[in-house]
Specification:
With 182 residues, the chain is α/β, with parallel strands linked by helices. It has 5 helices and 6 strands.
Length: 182
């Protein structure tokens, strides 16, 4: 399959961990990639994905901000996105009352606000095309209280609830083939 005919997948949080592995799977399965992370290591990861045969655009952006999400979305350049793998996220240890407010807010803004902003932008495009797939990386933490990860666990619980609510609506909109899952 030539790079011009390969579908496009966006993978956030793709510089390390689960996001890196998801991007590798996409590259191996015939997707070109638009990958993002908030650290320079995204460039090294992009090179690894190119070795798997994918054309890769890498964006270093802070997805806890509107500007960061807008920069990632601008890198789509009007191409149809077949798959969005929303994996960017962060945690923060310590008891809630011992956490720095700015750091706790960044967890919420990355894991929830930036994620659903990107989902809405890309999801609307998918709905207009009547196809696409969205995967939101969840966590067992969303189902458990987290004494030293209360904010992180709550954000994962939000995403679980969000997917449950968004999934039926995505399916029913104009008889689309848009799929949302976790």
């Amino acid at each position: 399959m030539s790079s011009g005919t390969r579908p496009l997948a966006i993978v956030t949080g793709a510089s390390t961990g689960i996001g890196y592995e998801l991007a590798k799977v996409c590259a191996r399965e015939g997707f070109n990639l638009l990958v993002a992370a908030d650290e320079p290591a995204i460039q090294d990861a992009a090179e690894d994905f190119r070795k798997l045969g994918a054309a890769v655009d890498a964006v270093q952006a802070d997805l806890s901000t509107t500007e960061g999400v807008d920069a990632l979305y601008a890198a789509v350049k009007g191409r149809p996105v077949e798959a969005l793998l929303a994996n960017a996220g962060r945690g923060l240890g310590h008891g809630f009352l011992d956490q720095d407010w700015a750091a706790a807010r960044k967890v919420v803004d990355t894991n929830i606000t930036g994620t659903i902003y990107l989902l809405q932008k890309v999801g609307r495009d998918m709905r207009a095309r009547k196809e696409g797939r969205i995967l939101i990386t969840g966590s067992i933490a969303g189902f458990l209280p987290g004494t030293y990860q209360a904010v992180y666990n709550a954000t994962k619980s939000f995403l679980d609830s969000f997917v449950t609510g968004a999934k039926p609506r995505a399916r029913s909109c104009s008889r689309t083939k848009v799929r949302v899952g976790r």
